[in-house]
Specification:
Two copies of one chain form a homodimer.
Chain A lengths: L2 H8 L9 H15 L7 E2 L1 H8 L3 H13 L4 E3 L3 E3 L5 H25 L2 H21 L7 H16 L5 H18 L9 H16 L3 H29 L25
Antiparallel strand pairs in A: 1-3, 2-3
Helix pairs in contact in A: 2-4, 5-8, 5-10, 6-7, 6-9, 9-10
The structure holds a DNA duplex (30 and 30 nucleotides).
DNA sequence: ATGCACATTTTTATCGACAAAACCTGTTTT
DNA sequence: AAAACAGGTTTTGTCGATAAAAATGTGCAT
């Protein structure tokens, strides 16, 4: 009964969640963002309870919280689901980030002090170092890489004085990560990724608002650009598929038939 | 479906909540926004259960959801509180709205069609009509006025294609309402309020992005301007207070000593 | 097959009970 | 007097049980 739960909880033992619902929140978010829980799949309470070894109440609490952040869909008496991925949504959050986060970084440049600059340099360095350490490993630690990546992007806008805006950027960042992680399959060199971020860092540290804004703007666009064009290519390459509807991402996969557990 | 894009929950009057936690969410939000539950007061589960006649689990679910939206504060093993009001927070959300909502209305102007314009006119008309109907009443229906006010402000940016941004505006709007309702005490004529909104409507309907942006920008500023200057005046009128720090509004009000209810 | 009523199974949402943690409130100790 | 302690009380967070609703299956008639 507890074997599965121990397994799951052990993986995140670093984060000292005092509360079961906090643990549930973290684990659930991780699994949704990483794709371990497939987009558009149903989140049955019984399954989640078993998966994380946590009771129904804290589980629902975590689900409710994630629903408020848009990482879970909730419909009134029909439970919860993982929000589907779609080209429309990807474009929505991409453009929203371009609108908001670019302004945020400009404000950060305006208000940032030396500590702000230091944290940018530090977090970039940590990203770079992880890359060098992992270049030999065949199974890179995606989790740690993601942590450092987020730290770097937070650092860029950390000096923006508008807390609400920064929190919103955080939310959009998390949403975008769901899509960005899909790019892993399209063979991306970490060298290219690092160069991208170095350029971005330099643009911000130059304290030229226009330049930094443009750099961040195009950086944010990368995920959508690559992913949507890849999808278009795949759609075009598939001879059987009818591509009359354009490069629209599909919202529903085969949905593996649910087996009874007897 | 109640994710972040819960544009369906606005109909507070016809609130046929299928679920207890939905009812709890609505009631709790109303009481926090209206100030019926005092800022910085503790939200004890037992009290809330009795107040709304709802069990602990759906109550906590609603609290968790509101916490994710910033309308409730949660600390790990010490329960929930109503977030305090402060000049700093008011300025934060005011400037954030100026940054985001102004861009949203510009995008709405860019994309808006005839239906968009119609809904703006309609919602303004409904606001105006309620005013005329209520000018005689000694106890105006604040709840209904708020509903129509929100509908009007939503209408302005409804044509903005970025759903995430609109949802964020919604959140900030709700936050700002907590402060705006404080202005009721500072004797505000509804005539002035209506004129303000008519000007705003006309600026938006002129489809001049710059003009509309400026109108919305200053409209958003009103609450903070009036409230902070009133607070400064009150501070100045108090002989004991030392105002050496300049006309900066203080972040902490007298905080009426919390008496035990015993 | 298609649709429809109805029975069965699964899932959701809710309540009450319980352990652990926080919180008083005097009392003792330094 | 301030800090430390021990007690009892309140409050939080969690679980399991349960009713209501949805989903699924089945037989039957079109």
């Amino acid at each position: 009964m507890t074997t599965l739960s121990e397994h799951a909880l052990e993986a995140v033992s670093t984060g000292a969640d005092v509360t079961a619902s906090e643990a549930a929140l973290r684990l659930l978010r991780r699994d949704i963002v990483s794709g371990a829980l497939a987009p558009d799949s149903k989140l049955k309470l019984r399954v989640l309870k078993e998966r994380y070894g946590i009771g129904g109440s804290p589980m629902r609490e975590a689900l409710a919280q994630l629903a408020a952040q848009g990482l879970v869909q909730q419909s009134s008496q029909k439970g919860f689901r993982v929000p589907p991925l779609s080209a429309a949504h990807l474009l929505d959050i991409t453009r929203s980030r371009q609108l908001v986060e670019v302004e945020a970084v400009k404000l950060a440049i305006e208000h940032g002090d030396a500590d702000w600059e230091d944290e940018i340099v530090t977090s970039y360095h940590l990203l770079e170092r992880l890359y060098h350490r992992l270049r030999g490993a065949e199974r890179p630690d995606t989790q740690e890489f993601e942590t450092r990546h987020q730290r770097f992007h937070r650092a860029l806008i950390a000096a923006c004085p508008l807390t609400s805006v920064k929190d919103f950027c955080d939310q959009l960042y998390t949403q975008a990560t769901r899509y960005r992680l899909l790019l892993r399959r399209y063979g991306f060199t970490r060298e290219v990724v690092l160069a991208e971020h170095r350029i971005l860092m330099q643009a911000v540290l130059s304290r030229n608002k226009t330049k930094a804004g443009k750099a961040l703007n195009s950086h944010i666009a990368i995920t959508a650009d690559v992913l949507l064009s890849e999808l278009a290519d795949r759609a075009l390459r598939r001879p059987a598929a009818k591509t009359s509807k354009g490069p629209r991402a599909r919202t529903k996969q085969p949905s593996k038939s649910r087996r009874k557990t007897k």
